[in-house]
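May I ask you for just one protein sequence along with its backbone structure tokens in two labelled lines?

_____
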Amino acid sequence: MLTTSITLNKRTQAETACDLIRTEILDGRLTPGAKLNIKALEERFELSLGAVREALSRLGAEGMVIGESHRGYRVAPVSKDELLDLTRARVEMECLCLGQAMRHGDVEWETRIVAAAHRMERLQSQTSDVEARSTKPWNDAHGEFHEALVSACPNQWLLRMRHMLYEQSERYRRLSVPLSTDERDVRNEHRQIMEAALRRDQASTFAALEQHLLATAQIILRSPLLQGD
């Protein structure tokens, strides 16, 4: 019993460390290319050294961090080529999952989408657009909206791959929020995707989704963030 308890505690600590580090990477508190001091992370999160090391190993498998031989870990850098490849892959995977979801979705699927969209819009209406899209509640609502869209897809392997691409692209999306000077109506972009999906209009849904994802990529590509890359 004691051995089982110790094992569970270690796994829980590693999962906690993984979630905390991933969140800081996505939020930009750990910037692209930054060196990760394992000892400092251990002390800041008040977790064991082993848990932090295991978390970094897991995040390396996710592509969030990169390991350097005899030099520890760094936050994965961002690049123009990766962004373009990632955006293309995500468009393909989102559309693949969404197509299946539209074929299998029922009223519960529709209700989940509408509820997620409503929550996102309400959060955006409480403050400025950019401020709202920089907060954890809106980021969570945004993730729930895109997950709701594909939730009726019956293929769990496709959903797992889609989730991995979403988390990678989320890092770029959050970097894009303070960069945007465009007159971009993100609320309307989400509404167009939702309405087309509820109509089961695949062509319109896929077109709206692709335009939505490419708009984010273009903001970053035009910004100083990737200049000289």
User: Anything to note?
Assistant: Residues 54 and 91 are 31 Å apart (CA to CA). Strands lie at 35-36, 65-68, 72-75. The chain has two domains: 2-75, 80-226. The chain has ten helices and three strands.
